[in-house]
Design goal:
This protein is mainly alpha-helical. The protein starts with a helix and ends in a 5-residue tail after the last helix. 73% of the residues lie in helices and 0% in strands. It has eight helices and no strands. The protein has helices spanning 2-13, 19-31, 44-63, 69-73, 77-87, 91-116, 125-139, 142-156.
Length: 161
Amino acid sequence: AAKLVDQINLMVSSPIWTLKMFADEINETLSSWTTKIPGASRTAEIKAAKETQVVVNAMVENLGDKVTAGDIARLDRRQKLKLVIACKKPMDEVNSVLNSFRQMEMMHRILRYRKENGIPLPTDEAGLKNAMQKDGIKVMTNQEKQEMREAYSKMATGGKA
């Protein structure tokens, strides 16, 4: 819980959420003492973090460390293909990491919104989920709202929308 509170404080104190900050979070996760325990490195969570780390490091190398979610949203297919080649991962994996970065950036905006409006900051995972549900719509751009509506529409129609 202390690590989560530290992460929240970092997000709240940073004016923008960059690719470098995202990479630092992943690297910190993989350098924690729990990953050094024999057998722990084979857990699904650690394996996923290592896969994400490969993609994020390639993104930092190819796009720069000051890249924001807005920059990521404007990547065209050619730029994404360059990332696929650079990290030697399939497009769906690269897209998944890009989406994770955008979600973290949205969480950053939600936490800053809560601080600026005097709303208590969450201290655990449940509180983070609650904050996203309560305040997410207040910080989302119109484009993000449209993308969410389209995603829900696809889910409701079984991907046929």
